[in-house]
Amino acid sequence: MANDKETLEFEFDLGPNKPKKIHRGAYNFIKNDSVYAEESFEVYRDKKELTLNFVSNMLSRVSTGELLKIQVNYQVSKDFVPLKVIVKKDLGREKVEESYKFDTKKNLLNYTFKNKRAKHTDQINTPPRFHIFTPSACCSMLFLLSKKFDTTAKNFYTSIQSINQWDYEHELIVKTVCLERISLTSESINIGGNELQAVQYRLFEDIRGQEAAKDFVKPPSLKVYQSRHNGVPYSINSEDGTMVQIKFFHNLEDD
């Protein structure tokens, strides 16, 4: 582990090709009828590189009264496979940057964790199609578009996640998640007085082979209402009552 004292700047470079902004919007994170966090986001399309960039900014007030700021830049290929993901977190004096860079030729994911005290790097093999989970809602369902979806069965995806917070403590976690389509056609949902057309899905961790265990506990699931706009969800609801709901969404491609 090498020391790294450089200042972490919370800015993202989207490259020299000046990608076109195609979506922008915001989410409210709600629990017990109270908004505890907000996320604003923008989506850019680079026609030359055939990539999409999902750039989000999250703000939340923690129990100490300090402001937690999380920024995510999530770049995917035309097949919605992550190419480069950067997560930046800022809380008081603590600053952390996590970066993921995918080597498409070798199917290797390079991970870097960096704070003011140290820098740590990891490398793991991945399948050609996978997803990286981040705190951002706008890019949380991109894996749905990474391969053909079977509407009559459960669909399985490889997910990669970091559980490191302000120091590096654990290697990346690789899991399989399962997605089921609940509604065969789009349905109308009301969010904030607005009628939106969405498709309902159920998302949960893969439990194949575990049902026979005596201590088996059915994993919690998420109810997701998905838009038709490049994987952006309108609503994500957990079983404990926590909700992520779209606050506003502008599809600039229609402008």
> What's the number of extended β-strand segments?
16
Please give the largest β-sheet: 16 strands, mixed
The global form is globular
Per CATH, the class reads Mainly Beta
- Decide which structural class fits the backbone: mainly beta
Helix content range of the residues, please?
under 10%
Taking the alpha carbons of the first and last residues, their distance comes to 49 Å
Radius of gyration: 19 Å
Low-confidence stretches: 1-10
CATH architecture: Clam
Return the CATH topology. outer membrane lipoprotein receptor (LolB), chain A
Roughly what is the average pLDDT, rounded to an integer?
90
- Overall number of structural domains: 1
List descriptors.
255 residues; mainly beta; outer membrane lipoprotein receptor (LolB), chain A; 16-stranded mixed beta sheet; disordered N terminus
